[in-house]
Amino acid sequence: MTSRPVPDESIGGLLDEIAGQLGFPVPAHQQAALRAVPRHLFLPATLWLRDGNGGHEPCDRESEPDRWWRAAYCDAPLVTQFAEGPDGHRAPSSSASMPSVVVRMLMALSAEAGHSVLEIGTGTGFNAALLSFVCGAENVTSLDVDPELTRRAQWALKASGQQPDVVCADGAGGWRPNAPYDRIIATCSVRTVPLPWLEQTVTGGLLVIPWDTPWCNFGTLIATKQADGTAEGSLAPFGSFMLLRAQQVDAELRAGFPGAGQDPERSVTGLSPWSVAGNDLDAQMYIGLRVPGAWHVWDTEVAQAHTRLWLADGRTSSWACVDYDGQQTSAFAVSQYGARKLWDEVARAYEEYVAAGRPGVHRQRLRLTPDGRGTRHEVSVSGRVA
Fold first, then answer.
1. Which of 14, 267, 321, 375 is the most buried (most CB within 10 A)?
2. Residues 10, 73: contact at Cβ < 8 Å?
3. Residue 125 and residue 154 in contact, taking contact as beta carbons nearer than 8 Å
């Protein structure tokens, strides 16, 4: 950790970058927080930066101090930790979020001095420090399941002069000793809101939670706790976070398809696979909410097609694929197997999306209801249940 002073141009440049993403200047109180909390104090000596080829490359503070410093004060996400899975594959397990996304989430949270705040996912501790500056450190509780990350964050927070209550615990359970909370914010995504989060929020309190579906990891729920114990709100068009560890899907659910002897039903569709799994994140989010459990992946290394879109639901052993032959753009070969006809479900969801006027993410709403040990969510568009 370096004590190098933060030049005004570094902070000013970062604020300009964030303003460019927001489309307006960073609000004054957020500017004050970013100036008071040096981001570099919360970053490890080795950062992993995007290499432009879909991967990451290391940037070491000792050997590349200027590059490391520029990364610390640019509006970009920074991978700070990798984890190795059972198959030997290494994947990012912790990161410093893009500062403009941090600001968007804090603006959505509308936290003020004196508000009691629970943060799920301490990570580097930077967000907890910003919350402490705004609300008072005595009002902020931050949880992280990783002991090493928790220790690093506590050290960084102390160095920054902000010392909220940082606890090493599974964030899925919330933290009852300091409940209830006026605000709950998560720096990880969920596919269903853990019941303790709902129970530990005061009536009228806000929950800001990145949302994930197997189909699409995008969007942030901004919901208000209701007097009847439910919560309701809309999705905001930003946020792509790692999934809450307690909800991470085992790798084997994405393996083993198609299986031997599985004879799929075959048909033809006029719906382009790029319409449902291309660059239209509004459509992808809509489909993800309405076709639960389904995920997709593109494949350009199959002998039978130029490009193939695979769809699967590992819990039901259902799968489908849609093939593009490299020439025909009005008809695509479809194969489907299993209890769920996944392509049919996706196609119906896309038809609903078009019929609803191609609603942006911000028109897609969720209502959270306690359901036994968890919560269930109902989906609507502009107030109409879809």
1. 321
2. yes
3. yes
Residue that has been written with the tokens 């695979």 in this structure? 310
Sheet hosting strand 265-269, strand order edge to edge: 265-269, 332-337, 318-324, 307-313, 295-299
This model's pTM is above 0.85: yes
Both tokens assigned to 331: 């008809």
Give the integer Cα–Cα distance in Å for 289 and 211.
10
Q: Which residues are catalytic, by number?
A: 97
Name every residue whose Cβ is closer than 8 Å to that of residue 289 and which is 6 or more positions away in sequence. 213, 364, 366, 379
Amino acid sitting at position 379: V
Question: What letter represents residue 167's amino acid?
Answer: V
d(CA 327, CA 250): 37
Instruction: Give residue-wise pLDDT tens across range 142-182.
Output: 999 999 999 999 999 999 999 999 999 999 999 999 999 99
Which distant-in-sequence residues (6+ apart) come within 8 Å of 301 by Cβ? none
Whether the Cβ atoms of residue 347 and residue 366 lie closer than 8 Å to each other: no
Q: How many residues comprise the chain?
A: 386
Tell which residue, 81, 74, 76, has the closest CA to residue 95: 81
At 81, list the tokens: 């930790």
Rounded Cα distance between 325 and 200, Å, is: 53
**Residue 216 and residue 270 in contact, taking contact as beta carbons nearer than 8 Å:** no
